[in-house]
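lol ok so funny story. i was supposed to be doing the assay writeup but got distracted and ended up predicting the structure for this chain instead. priorities right. anyway since i did it might as well share w the group, maybe its usefull for someone
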Amino acid sequence: MSRAAVVAGRFYPDDPAQLKSEVAGYMPEQALPRQKALAVVLPHAGYVYSGPTAGATLAGVDVPENVLLLGPNHTGMGAACSLSPDDWRIPGAVIPTNKALAKAILDTSSLVQEDSRAHQREHSLEVLLPFLHYAQPNLQIAALCLGGLSFAQCSRLAQDLHSALQAFVEPVLVVASTDMNHFASRKEGSRKDQQAIERILALDAQGLYNTVRNRQISMCGVLPVSVTILLSLARGANRAELVRYTDSGEAGGMLDQVVGYAGLVVS
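and the output, tada:
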């Protein structure tokens, strides 16, 4: 089976040629070789808002054929750690799920369940696929949708995923999908976002989790990013870099209720 592209024509173009052209416009040419990274953090809004940040972040990264995607569960459907069993359709392409990587994850983690329900209407991973496919035409993925996890569960999941990636052997880029604070003034949103970004740059997953919870920061992907930090540390990460930060007001002009977007690289 393959999962349909449910937000094509709304978040991004549904015409394959137009989509490829738009993505190319958001991904400036970078001097080779591109950076080897363990993980990236990317935003997932409509392309007019988050496309420049996603493109600028991925443009400088060497994207391998295998990518592990971690995104938030906006719909509340499915299991807390839902692994998609399906291939994914985007306009002009079908992106296969890497069955060996998916099996390695299921074999090593009792938290993860094979479950398509969480992914059926979820946009947070779908909107990143055209960027990843443009950067790596031979892309294969494992897609996880996360919701309702304690920090202890995030830590356990990260340990399980590390074991799975070690068993899988081939290079894997981890992609965490998140937007930052939602619907505050630019001044307030930026203040909250900088608090969260500081913790990501420090590779402080517990600090990020607690900061978002305690300071009422509506960062939808705090779970995927927390797990990604922990997983990256287990894989030997020692630095994170902020490539670009902006908010929806840059494109839309409304500054009283903005959503923040950040692109980061972990290596």
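Residues 81 and 195 are 27 Å apart (CA to CA). The first strand starts at residue 2 and ends at 3.
back to the writeup now i swear
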